[in-house]
Every structure is written in C-alpha cells, then in structure tokens.
Design brief:
This protein is of the alpha/beta class. Helix content is about 20%, strand content about 30%. The radius of gyration is 31 Å and the shape is elongated.
C-alpha cells in the first residue's frame, strides 16, 4: 500500500502537459499559455502624455507661477508631426498623444488656469513629469507573457495590445468516464429495489469541467468481462480514463483485471488514505487511467486529491495542488493511525485566523456533508488524536478556494 504522498508523486511523475493548439484570444481565457510570447514592438510605441494638460519645457517653468503662450493642440490619436514646443511656449495636449519636439514635461490641466491662448502654471514643474516613455512598459524583443501563465483579463489586454489575435494554449484533454455495476441505472429512471442512479459519472463530469477539461461519459459497464472489455477499450481512446467502482477485491470487481488484459501497466493499487483506499492508477501507453472507488464521497475525494492535480498538469498549470494552510479546530477529531484521513470541514475566519469545524457526519455514504464542506483537512497518517484548539493542515474545496486569501 502506497502512502498518500507517494501515490500523488507517482501520478504526477507520469503526467506530461498535453499538446498545443492555437486558439482565439477570448477562447484562451482561463487556460494556460504553452509558449513565451515576445513583444514585436515597444510599448508605448512613442513618448506620450500621461495627462490632459500642457506640454512644456521645464526650463521655462522655474517659478511657482509662470505664463506661457499656447501655440498648438495635440489630441489623442494625433501624429504630432511638425508641432514643437518653443521657448516660452506650451502646447495643449491630451492623454496618450505623442509629446512634441522640445517638450520634457507635461503639466496637468488642474495645475493651470486652463488658459486657451495663454496659460498660467500654478505648481512647480519637474523635468520628465507625466510623460510615458517609449518602451517603459515593455521593450521590443522581450518576453511579456511567459509560458505557464493563466490567461486572465490583464493577459488578454496586453496580448491584444500587441496584436495577438490567437495564442498557443495547452489543449484541453478529453477525459472518458466509466461507471461499473449491475445495480446502476441512468438518470431519468426511478430506481427500483437494488438499483442506484449513476450519479458518479455526472459528478465526475462536473469535476472534469471545473478543472477545464472535456468529459466524455461512456455509460455503464455491467458486471461481466465482455461489457468491461467493450467499455474500457473505448475509454482508452481518450486522453485520460476515469473509472468508478469495481476496483476492490470482490468477484465482480473486474476493472483492474480487464485493464491488465488490455495492456495497461498498473503503477499502484491501494493507498494509505481514508476515504479512497482502493484507488488504482495505471498507464496505457501515454494515457493515464484512474480507477476510483464507487462510494460517491470516496469518488469525489479521490478525484480532488489525485485526479485533479494530474489534469491541471496536463493543462499546463504550474500550481497543481491546492495550497495547504493552518486552521484551528473548534472540536476534537479522532482517527486510527496508519492512514492519512481527509475530513470535510466548515470554515470561519475570525481576526485573521481560520477556524474549522466538522461539516457533518463523516461516513462516506453521507453526501450532504460533501455538499456543505468548504474545506478538507489532511490529517497525517501517524496521528490519531486532535484536540480542540489544535492546528491542522487544510485546503479549500471547490469554489471556496476563491475566498479571502489565507493567512500563512
């Protein structure tokens, strides 16, 4: 049985980023750049005014209050050809307009009397003030967005500024999802005696979508070799294969045996973690295969801890594990030593410190606790008793990772 930490290491060592595709700029939002992007020109392309005001020569403005003759006007978008600031003169200028010849400072309009023919400056002038210099943001030939960057609105803005209508992005892997078991029925039917709705396939598909990948639900493999062969063979055509249930040691747990028959190389089976101990991981060529337990809570937690980091790495993300932070327990927690235990928690921030309490019944059949959980505690294998007031390692779960930045 592998430790929780070693299992994640084995998985991530066998995962490589997916291929690269060119996508339109807005289609790249939320995805990861595959290559460094080089600036084709300087930004800004010319020295320009950072304010609406007057372009002046600082040498003319030694006094607190001085008068200058207004000899021209430069709006945004003007080329500025032939316009010059002569001694004792000023040129009215708008934000973004190129600074004219002779100008070495811009005086904001609010620091003047806003004169049209003649302007009075009301504040001292410093050489270089309110002028944006050519290339001061980005110099031509330099990297301005690096591989591994997530495309957000700022990246969209700067990429558009440099004319990048399409960008190289890591391709979104297709993740095949297969549930197993004669007891399963598809959503839309009312379960009869001994029947269970195939909810795992849908929750896994939702988790795959949240991660940024493309789910492909294969349906249900029935508890016979022929059905497993057909469905697993189809699933191995995807970039990643996830299976749910059929991975323990019962006479109907066929997944690992059929995968072996199809040429998959099992890298581990059974992990020192609760819930999720029967998890298996294999490689079929370059295709990762995750065989997760069938209990819905175990399925979701093993996806969170093992599959999600792998998919993020395939998508090109640098940070694939949710950051751990410390939370103070509101109540005692008990566990058996020997395995890492994942506990579903509620969080509260009080005075800059995080406090955690149980989200409810921790049995793996209790879905409501999973719904309510804001975070997961990762309790170390060697420990068994955690008192109220102890600090434990916690990471956010799902969209709660967008809450206030954690205190380190």
């Amino acid at each position: 049985m592998l430790s929780f930490e070693k299992a994640r290491q084995v998985i991530l060592e066998n995962i490589t980023p997916s291929g690269v595709e060119q996508v339109s700029l807005l289609d790249a939002v939320g995805r990861v750049l595959a290559h460094d992007i080089v600036a084709p020109w300087d930004m800004p392309l010319w020295d320009n005014s950072a304010m609406d005001g007057y372009a002046v020569r600082s040498a003319d403005c030694g006094q607190t209050s001085c008068k200058l003759k207004v000899t021209g006007y430069l709006p945004a978008g003007a080329k500025g050809d032939g316009i010059e600031v002569n001694p004792g003169c000023a040129v009215r200028i708008m934000t973004g307009a190129p600074t004219p010849s002779g100008c070495d400072a811009v005086v904001p309009v609010e620091e003047t009397d806003d004169g049209q023919q003649e302007v009075t400056l009301l504040q001292p002038v410093t050489k270089g003030q309110h002028i944006r210099l050519r290339g001061e943001d980005v110099m031509s030939g330099t990297f301005f967005v690096r591989a591994g960057a997530i495309v957000r609105p700022p990246e969209v803005n700067i990429l558009a500024t440099f004319g990048k209508a399409a960008v190289p992005i890591h391709r979104r892997p297709v993740v095949a999802i297969l549930s197993t078991g004669d007891e399963l029925i598809e959503l839309g039917r009312t379960p009869g005696p001994g029947e269970i709705v195939n909810s795992n396939a849908l929750s896994l598909a939702a988790a795959v979508i949240e991660t940024g990948c493309i789910p492909r639900i294969l349906g249900i493999a029935r508890d016979n070799r022929e059905s497993h062969l057909e469905k697993l063979r189809e699933g191995l055509k995807a970039d990643v294969l996830l299976t749910s249930a059929g991975v323990s040691a019962g006479d109907r747990d066929l997944v690992r045996g059929v995968l072996d028959e199809l040429g998959a190389r099992q890298l581990f089976w059974k992990v020192g973690v609760k819930p999720g101990g029967p998890t298996a991981f294999a490689m079929h060529g370059a295709t990762p295969v995750f065989s997760l337990p069938g209990n819905p809570v175990s399925t979701m937690i093993t996806f969170e801890e093992f599959v999600r980091p792998a998919l993020l790495k395939m998508l090109g993300h640098r940070q694939v594990l949710r950051p751990l932070f410390k939370a103070v327990l509101r109540e005692k927690l008990l566990k058996k030593p020997g395995k890492v235990q994942i506990v579903r928690l509620l969080l509260e921030n009080d005075g800059g410190r995080w406090f955690a309490g149980s989200a409810g019944n921790q049995q793996t059949a209790i879905l409501k606790t999973m719904v309510d959980a804001q975070a997961l505690a990762v309790l170390p294998a060697e420990s068994s008793h955690f008192a109220a007031g102890d600090e434990v390692d916690v990471h956010f779960y799902g969209n709660y990772c967008d809450l206030t930045e954690v205190s380190r």
